């Protein structure tokens, strides 16, 4: 995989000219910013892409803060999703000075779908574990419960978003839960973005007692096969420190560092 080419495609297709992550949000585009506005409280709202410099960054940040004071934005969490290759280099510092709160950074990793499918042909679930596709509210509850146990954070917004996707936009997502008998032990999803060459891997949380048994790797393999069958060329992951080494061994390349800056008006 040519990482320079893949990153340029990612910036173009998944950021600057990104379609909405589900059919309902609105994309506001200017020559230097792309902002998604979700109609529901659980929808993601924020800056997907920016092309600024030291002379235009503060004005652009101020314009977003002004929009956040409008009735449309009231009470809505807003995220400016930055990448380490964005300009200016001190964009994060400027966002903090304007009142945004930084969240932990993650590594943007990309890989060729077919290379990952080939590299994970030997991936198997441990004995007694099987995969259940999520197609209804009961499955969404299982996936959300795994998220809370694996990451120690509330899954309320995630539950609402996944339920909306499963019920109204099933073509945009593929969710699976790994079950040990009747116990959900790992959950992961893949966001499918028609009109692009990228499928995004998200979640992949495993409850602590079941880590290190190959379940995460098996779910990467499962999703890679689905992405290949749908004609996607690349897999994209915002990798935590825990998942980055696993993905690197599978052939994913680290191409940037992404960090969200959030604010609630």
TrEMBL record:
Residue stretches making up the N-acetyltransferase domain: 129-265
Pfam family, one: Acetyltransf_1
InterPro entries: Acyl_CoA_acyltransferase, GNAT_dom
Disordered as annotated region, ranges: 1-39
PROSITE patterns for this protein: GNAT (PS51186)
Protein's name in the database: GNAT family N-acetyltransferase
């Amino acid at each position: 995989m040519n990482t320079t080419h893949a990153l340029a495609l990612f910036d173009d297709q998944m950021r600057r000219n990104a379609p909405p992550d589900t059919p309902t949000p609105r994309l506001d585009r200017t020559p230097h910013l792309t902002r998604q506005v979700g109609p529901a409280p659980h929808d993601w709202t924020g800056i997907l892409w920016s092309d600024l410099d030291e002379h235009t960054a503060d004005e652009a940040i101020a314009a977003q803060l002004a929009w956040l004071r409008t009735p449309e934005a009231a009470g809505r969490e807003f995220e400016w999703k930055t990448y380490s290759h964005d300009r200016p280099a001190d964009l994060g510092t400027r966002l903090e000075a304007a009142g945004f709160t930084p969240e932990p950074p993650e590594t943007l990793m990309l890989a060729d779908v077919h290379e990952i499918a080939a590299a994970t042909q030997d991936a198997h679930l441990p004995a007694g574990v099987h995969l259940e596709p999520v197609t209804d509210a009961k499955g969404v509850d299982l996936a959300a419960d795994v998220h809370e146990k694996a990451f120690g954070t509330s899954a309320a917004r995630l539950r609402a978003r996944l339920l909306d996707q499963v019920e109204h936009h099933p073509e945009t997502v593929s969710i699976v839960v790994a079950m040990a008998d009747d116990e959900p032990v790992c959950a992961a999803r893949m966001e499918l973005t028609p009109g692009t060459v990228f499928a995004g891997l998200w979640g992949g949380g495993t409850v602590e007692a079941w880590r290190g048994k190959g379940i995460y790797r098996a779910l990467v393999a499962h999703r890679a096969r689905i992405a290949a069958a749908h004609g996607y060329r690349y897999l994209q992951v915002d990798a935590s420190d825990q998942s980055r080494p696993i993905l690197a061994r599978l052939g994913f390349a680290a191409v940037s560092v992404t960090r969200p800056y959030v604010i609630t008006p």
